[in-house]
From TrEMBL, chain A:
It comes from Paenibacillus mendelii. Keywords: Transferase. Gene3D superfamilies: Glutaconate Coenzyme A-transferase. The keyword Cytoplasm does not apply. InterPro entries: 3-oxoacid_CoA-transf_B, CoA_trans_fam_I, CoA_transf_AS, NagB/RpiA_transferase-like. Transmembrane segments: none annotated. This is 3-oxoacid CoA-transferase subunit B. NCBIfam families: pcaJ_scoB_fam. Belongs to the 3-oxoacid CoA-transferase subunit B family.
TrEMBL record, chain B:
One of its GO terms (molecular function) is transferase activity. SUPFAM superfamilies: NagB/RpiA/CoA transferase-like (SSF100950). This is CoA transferase subunit A. Belongs to the 3-oxoacid CoA-transferase subunit A family. It comes from Paenibacillus mendelii. Pfam families: CoA_trans (PF01144). Keywords: Transferase. InterPro entries: 3-oxoacid_CoA-transf_A, CoA_trans_fam_I, CoA_transf_BS, NagB/RpiA_transferase-like.
């Protein structure tokens, strides 16, 4: 049974994923993190040629397999069975992170628990809870040319996730370029966070009210942007 | 020509308590299933395991965990395993979590004779606390030492009698770099063919890194079956 709440939740994730798709330019090599970032692939415009990297050793992620083409040896970083796109390449894990750290990936879209006003990202552990590991996130935040974090604007208790300083242990310091939430698009600039887009149903003031970090408002801020 | 072990028990006969093992695989893909089962049957304990993950509760390295044979695990992500969580929280096992790219490079460096290197991953985070960093060209990097192992247990799709290996798709993952970083590398291959059968240009791990071979069928359990309609 799908409840109303599930519908709302789903549409929030969809809204974020659809907006994040617009970050991806024709010709880009892109790494998508686990969770909402993975959904972005579902909305990729057909006229863009994009190569998706999977850090377990694949350049060129294709769609999920049909039942009869499923290969247990072919998975993405989230361990889901996938296919390889036309022109894909396989490689080992050191090569994979060499291309990540070496600055060859144009864009990484990652999930986030908290982002600070200086672009610090926390997305790998909550003290007191079981630590499962950082996977490739700490490498990715330093390697990709551009880091976009996608997340809900506030947490389950309606508290801001965009903070003056992260309270959770960091994944990387001053690494985030842009934050896309269900409510807004915010850029990390040398002067601080700059609000550049406001989603339908919200106002600039409403975004400021649910953001702890100081927000500059871009002169050309787009309202009703997505 | 490399030694082809007659049984899995023979393939791992010289692995003793307290050994350091690298085990290939990402999730359940590319793990040497039968060599892991042989370790469970042999019952060697106090093992230090270097592997990206630690299997699931009832498959892969999770079997060694359940049997309490692991003393220390060095990995990048260990979710999806309740028994792991229990042993880690109770202090029965020591867990060292390392960024995946750093883990891969530590292993690559170990096999390539590089004792240490600098990487940006982890700078400014808890993993860099009280550790040596250095600034190059205005950016801070963390010193990381390489890893080697007493034994590397890896999975190939095909091996030839010279120990040359090829892998299937994303089952390659950590296997080639671990092959080079093990003092004794035992390769489980889905198929072993005569020397000369594999085209030299397609070899992914040259036989120099492999000391022992065994052929084995894989179950290839799927962790997350995702298909399109």
């Amino acid at each position: 049974m799908i409840t109303n709440m599930d519908h709302t939740k789903l549409s929030v994730r969809e809204r974020i994923a659809r907006r994040a798709e617009r970050e991806i330019k024709d010709g880009f090599y892109v790494n998508l993190g686990i969770g909402i970032p993975t959904l972005v692939a579902n909305y990729l415009a057909a006229d863009k040629q994009v190569v998706l990297q999977s850090e377990n050793g694949l350049l060129g992620i294709g769609p999920y397999p049909a039942e009869d083409e499923l290969d247990p040896d072919l998975i993405n970083a989230g361990k889901e069975t996938i296919t390889a796109a036309q022109g894909a390449a396989y490689f080992h894990s050191a090569e994979s992170f060499g291309m990540i750290r070496g600055g060859h990936i144009d864009l990484a879209i990652l999930g986030g628990m908290e982002v600070s006003g200086e672009g610090d990202l926390a997305n790998w552990m909550i003290p007191g809870k079981m630590v499962k590991g950082m996977g490739g996130a700490m490498d990715l935040v330093h390697g990709a040319k551009r880091i976009v974090v996608v997340m809900d604007h506030v947490n389950k208790d309606s508290q801001p996730k965009i903070l003056r300083a992260c309270s959770l242990p960091l994944t990387g310091k001053r690494v985030v370029n842009r934050i896309i939430t269900d409510r807004a698009v915010i850029d990390v600039t040398p002067d601080g966070l700059r609000l550049v887009e406001v989603a339908s149903g919200y106002t600039v003031e409403a975004i400021k009210a649910c953001t702890e970090a100081e927000l500059l408002v871009a002169e050309d801020v787009v309202l009703d942007a997505f | 020509m490399k030694t082809i072990a007659a049984s899995y028990a023979e393939a791992i006969a010289d692995i003793q308590d307290g050994a350091t093992l690298m085990v290939g695989g990402f999730g359940l893909v590319g793990i040497p299933e039968n060599l892991i089962t042989a370790l469970v049957e042999k019952g060697v304990k106090d093992l230090t395991i270097i592997s990206n993950n630690c299997g699931v509760d009832d498959f892969g390295l999770g079997l060694l965990l359940r049997n309490k044979q692991i003393r220390t695990i060095i990995a990048s992500y260990v979710g999806e395993n309740k028994e792991f969580e229990r042993q880690a929280l109770s202090g029965e096992i020591t867990v060292k979590l390392i960024p995946q790219g750093t883990l891969a490079e530590k292993i690559r460096a170990g096999g390539a004779g590089i004792p240490a290197f600098y990487t940006p991953a982890g700078v400014g985070t808890p993993i860099a606390a009280n550790r040596e960093t250095r600034v190059f060209d205005g950016k801070e990097y963390l010193l990381e030492e390489s890893l080697t192992a007493d034994f590397s247990l890896i999975l190939a799709s095909k091996a030839d009698r010279m120990g040359n290996l090829v892998y299937n798709k994303t089952a390659m993952n950590f296997n080639p770099i671990m092959a080079a970083a093990g003092r004794m590398t035992i390769a489980e291959a889905e198929e072993i063919v005569e020397a000369g059968t594999l085209s030299p240009g397609t070899i992914q791990t040259p036989g120099i890194y492999v000391q022992r071979l065994i052929a084995g069928r894989q179950t290839k359990r799927v962790e997350k079956r995702t298909v399109r309609a």
